[in-house]
């Protein structure tokens, strides 16, 4: 089974160079001494950390930690949707297949080791070499090679010429720069080993750490990058087993910020609580049903497709949105969220806005599928929020109410769930997506390209060609036309079925400032935005 994630890339970028003059945030080179404003805050979350080491993780919980402690060549300061210099002074295309970055002088890791172009080349190459099934290696699928020409110059050689997408990849989960003197080239560090190594050069380092419980971030006075200086000396990230206790602690003001994931009912309740504020930011989170094309029910490809079409014709997204999520998630009829350039509603066009039992029944009967069809449906109760059980019980109810399906609904905690889904253990299962960067391509290439990260055995030459075309098309109108074809083919084939899209939500006590500044389209929660 191919366990790679597909390359997440942005097409249609007009700028081929990012220079230091474009940087809208970061340290002032004249600053001396501590850059933070002192104090401490506690942030609560239900997200679990798979790995602090970037080579072994590609998930929201790990990215939350990595965002604070690692530098990237380029990054997204507050409010920016085009990458700006972080560890790099500038990055630019020298030729159609070479992308060169110049590293800032004097950068160091928290352990005192220098951060140079050699560190950068090592960081990207080890992700590809290790190729961890939970890691971001597939984001670098267009990287043919990377080389440090000297201590300040790193050159990426690309497989596809004139690829306008590569700068965005440097900002993703594949982008953190690690210390080549303490991180092995052939395996990932455990979390405890990573904390001990202190190969961090971001705005924060990690002090006390207990996996699955807490991470203590300490302001890094030597940070010189794209983000603001830390305004808080110490930020403790506290991990909760479920959202109920997270809600109680922010309600009682035992913590300062609750970030992922409160239930819609909790958010509705907290919105009227004295002393706390509900902050909402740019949307973009998607929730899907994924079909394993190898193990899902059906005796051949035609029957399997008919079953997928029948499922698509049987679900009421509006009911899930209102009954389960109180409108905090809304129906999604495309893998690309509404509002992004090129988005259509191809699934609504093909399968309708409301359940159509007659259409579902015809899909099945035309393919010779006997009913009721038994579907083993798996979901995760903790990683995608506390309402996943209600969401998937509603999916089960809707499918069984047609009389066409019998649903065997099962769940597993995230660590087990994530490991089992890539082993073909789940014929039909829940998946959520948090974008690597704010562009339509990041919602389609990781799901539909050759070697997609889902591991559901989907591959189609026509789709691969369309994705390659949209990633490298500089003309906006032409690119959106190609994206429309991508969405149409995705709806016709239904390897994944988009259900809902939601906004970013954080709840904070009223004395915490800056929360809204980090809830932007870059989808990176920056502790440097917070003050008190």
UniProtKB/TrEMBL annotation:
Transmembrane segments: none annotated. The keyword Transferase does not apply. Residues 1-24 form the signal peptide. It comes from Mumia zhuanghuii. One of its GO terms (cellular component) is ATP-binding cassette (ABC) transporter complex. The keyword Transport applies. It comes from the Bacteria. This is Peptide ABC transporter substrate-binding protein. Keywords: Signal, Transport. Pfam families: SBP_bac_5. One of its GO terms (molecular function) is peptide transmembrane transporter activity. InterPro entries: Peptide/Ni-bd, SBP_5, SBP_5_dom. Residues 82-452 form the Solute-binding protein family domain. Belongs to the bacterial solute-binding protein 5 family. GO terms for biological process: peptide transport. It is found in: Cell envelope.
């Amino acid at each position: 089974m191919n366990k790679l994630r597909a390359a997440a890339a942005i097409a249609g970028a007009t700028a081929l160079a990012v220079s230091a003059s474009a940087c809208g945030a970061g340290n002032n080179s004249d600053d001396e001494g501590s850059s933070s404003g002192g104090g401490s805050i506690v942030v609560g979350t239900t997200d679990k950390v798979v790995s602090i080491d970037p080579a072994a993780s590609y998930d929201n919980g790990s990215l939350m930690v990595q965002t604070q402690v690692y530098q990237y060549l380029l990054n997204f300061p507050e409010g920016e949707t085009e990458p700006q210099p972080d560890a790099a002074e500038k990055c630019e295309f020298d030729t159609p297949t070479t992308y060169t970055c110049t590293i800032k002088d004097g950068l160091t890791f928290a352990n005192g080791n220098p951060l140079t172009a050699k560190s950068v080349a090592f960081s990207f190459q080890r992700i590809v070499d290790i190729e961890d099934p939970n890691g971001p290696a597939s984001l670098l699928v267009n990287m043919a090679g990377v080389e440090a020409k000297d201590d300040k110059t790193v050159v990426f050689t690309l497989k596809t010429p004139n690829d306008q997408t590569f700068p965005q990849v440097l900002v993703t989960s594949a982008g953190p720069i690690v210390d080549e003197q303490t991180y092995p080239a052939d395996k990932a560090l455990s979390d405890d080993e990573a904390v001990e190594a202190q190969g961090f050069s971001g705005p924060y380092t990690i002090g006390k750490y207990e996996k699955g419980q807490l991470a203590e971030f300490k302001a890094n006075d030597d940070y010189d990058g794209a983000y603001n200086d830390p305004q808080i000396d110490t930020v403790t990230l506290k991990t909760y087993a479920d959202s109920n206790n997270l809600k109680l602690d922010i309600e009682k003001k035992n913590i300062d910020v609750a970030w992922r994931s409160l239930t819609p009912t909790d958010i509705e309740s907290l919105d009227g609580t004295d002393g706390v504020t509900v902050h909402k930011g740019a949307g973009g989170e998607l929730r899907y049903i994924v079909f394993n094309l190898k193990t899902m029910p059906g005796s051949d490809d035609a029957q399997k497709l008919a079953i997928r079409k029948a499922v698509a014709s049987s679900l009421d997204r509006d009911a899930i949105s209102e009954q389960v999520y109180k409108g905090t998630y809304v129906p999604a009829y495309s893998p690309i969220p509404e509002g992004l350039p090129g988005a259509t509603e191809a699934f609504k066009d093909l399968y309708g806005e409301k359940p159509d039992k007659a259409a579902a029944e015809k899909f099945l009967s035309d393919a010779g599928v006997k009913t009721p069809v038994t579907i083993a449906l798996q979901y995760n109760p903790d990683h995608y929020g506390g309402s996943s059980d209600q969401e998937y019980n509603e999916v089960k109810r809707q499918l069984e109410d047609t009389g066409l399906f019998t649903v065997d609904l099962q769940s597993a905690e995230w660590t087990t769930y994530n490991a089992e889904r890539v082993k073909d253990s789940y014929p039909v299962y829940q998946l959520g997506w948090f974008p690597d960067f704010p562009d339509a391509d990041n919602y389609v290439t990781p799901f539909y390209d050759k070697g997609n990260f889902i591991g559901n055995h989907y591959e189609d030459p026509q789709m691969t060609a369309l994705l390659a075309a949209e990633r490298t098309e500089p003309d906006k109108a032409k690119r959106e036309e190609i994206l429309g074809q991508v969405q149409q083919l995705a709806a016709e084939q239904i390897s994944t079925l988009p259900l809902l899209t939601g906004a970013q939500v954080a709840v904070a006590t009223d004395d915490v400032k800056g929360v809204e500044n980090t809830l932007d389209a870059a989808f990176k929660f920056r502790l440097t935005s917070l003050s008190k």
